[in-house]
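Consider the tokenized backbone below.
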């Protein structure tokens, strides 16, 4: 193989590795909320909130901090009053970028 071809392949591999390694910096925070589902009706007002936040430094549920494990998994339980409620999860990464996920639930 000519030296130029080897150098070009090496440079391409180096750029590809850099793009993969930089992805968490470029992606920003993400929230996957597994429970409760949107528009869920709760019989007794008790709900279990469960999900995963990636590329996240802080996580807030309705303005209160929510703890995550090393993989970004989180869970907590709430008892809500009768009527409708909006659960608001906000994730912030170390660069200050923010994303908010909202779910509406109804208590019978």
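A designed sequence for it:
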């Amino acid at each position: 193989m000519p030296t130029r071809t080897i150098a070009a392949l090496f440079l391409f591999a180096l750029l590809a590795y850099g793009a993969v390694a930089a992805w968490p910096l470029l992606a920003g925070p993400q929230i996957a909320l597994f429970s409760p589902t949107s528009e869920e009706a709760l019989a007794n007002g008790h709900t279990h909130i469960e999900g995963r936040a990636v590329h996240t430094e802080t996580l807030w549920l309705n303005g209160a901090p929510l703890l995550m494990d090393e993989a970004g998994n989180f869970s907590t339980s709430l008892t809500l009053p009768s009527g409708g409620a909006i659960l608001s999860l906000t994730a912030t990464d170390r660069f200050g970028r923010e994303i908010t996920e909202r779910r509406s639930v109804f208590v019978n």
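Helices lie at 3-27.
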